[in-house]
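Notes to self after the Tuesday call (sharing in case useful).
The group wants a holo model before anyone commits to mutagenesis around the pocket. I volunteered. Ligand is zinc ion. Logging inputs and output together so the record is complete.
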Amino acid sequence: MQFFTIASGSSGNAYFLELAGQHFLIDAGVSGKRIEHALQKKNIRGLNGIFITHEHNDHIAGAGVIARRFKTEIYATPLTWRYFLRHKKLGALNEEQIKIIEPDKPLLIGGAEVTAFDIPHDASQPVGYSFRAVTNESEKMVIATDLGHATESVKERLKNARVLLIESNHDPEMLERGRYQRELKTRVAGNRGHLSNAQAGMLLAEVVIPGKTHVFLAHLSEENNTPMLAFDTVARILDGNNITVGRLEVAERNIPGEPVVC
Ligand SMILES: [Zn+2]
Ligand SMILES: [Zn+2]
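Result:
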């Protein structure tokens, strides 16, 4: 399994996962050019699918371009696809490139099993994704960003991941003091908005494999957070709960990160 981040944050999200010989892109929220460049640099020439979490622009900006360039499929939930097609969001695609994935119904692609799961966020039908190698239980990667809070079913999905990427969006005090309009502040902090640093820390304390899980804190707000604040807040909560993780790092906003191989 190999995983690396291409871009992460409110300004654009894209992640790459190689699992059981399959190459997946998870979200494509920066330009096609940037994604292609990042893949080229790591010698990745083909894709076996693009998995979209939801329709917000910071997750889809380059999706159509990449699907056409790599002649690959785009997977999204039924209501997300309905939104894309209604609003002609992704440009021209062949019918075979339009793939529906239903939450909680595992999909097999080669030796990789992919399961979408519902997350609470203000979009049509937002999901996180769990990827697992069929022949090796320990090869499991889970991604969950853009969620207002962690439900019990989300927590179950995040457990036993070797690599876990979760949102650590904002610091509530920075958000409160910041220059966002009141309405937007309420939305971000709300139940269907985004996870705060402390919420991410408390969630991680419940779901990581002690000493093993490689954790990425992702989708940081540029306005209402800093990488150091996110890291320190989460690290402090994990310490306070006597939890160690394999590694804790903050996903880079604008440059591809180093691959994790495990
Ligand atoms: Zn969103
Ligand atoms: Zn987002």
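Two things stood out.
Residues 56, 58-59, 146, 219 surround zinc ion (ligand 2) (CB under 6 Å).
The two ends are 5 Å apart (CA to CA).
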